[in-house]
Description:
Elements: E1 5-10, E2 13-18, H1 19-22, H2 29-44, E3 51-57, E4 63-65, E5 67-69, E6 76-80, E7 87-91, E8 97-99, E9 101-108, E10 113-121, H3 137-148, E11 150-153, H4 182-198
Parallel strand pairs: 2-10, 7-11
Antiparallel strand pairs: 1-2, 3-9, 4-8, 5-11, 6-7, 9-10
Amino acid sequence: MFSENSKITVRGSVFSYKTTHLQQHKDVLEHLHRALERVISEIRIVPVGETIKKTVNLHKIIGQSHCVALNGDEEVFYAQRKGRRTLSKFVRGREAEDCSCITFAISKTTTSRYKILTAYIGYISEKEPLDPSISNEQEFNRCKDFWNNHALVEGSQNIFIDSITYECPWNTYQSKVKLRSSNQNISKINNQEMNKNKL
């Protein structure tokens, strides 16, 4: 089990990450060091304070991509993933696709220290439209266009069942919705499970 603030050291550079954020992408951890080694020289020349987003091809199948392009006739729904505070889009009846790539977003905090914001097996995608870091309508529209045509495969992520909705929650930038804290939902679910065990 990785600690809350786990670290990966690559040629003297330290990459830290929160386990809670990468818990949905556990399969990426065993390949992350090798991927970072391939681009460490490129990362080092990025100015402090910048965010680097890269896709690295390891040239062999290392797992599956759970984000798939839609044909347009699939059944989709929206749900809150564990560890997240907003809704994500899911598709039914599709399977994850074999992939040889790792994508990660990293913030450079000092000349030799970095924070891994996200890392997953698959290709570069846009932020989810409800991401609180989206700063303007132009960025929101770009993210919305991507997720209008893509979704996560049902069953690939842990979700809160009581959060499922079939109504798109991100029609406009002004109408972006935020959900209650994930921790509150987790407590609610844990209490329900404890009560069931007592019966």
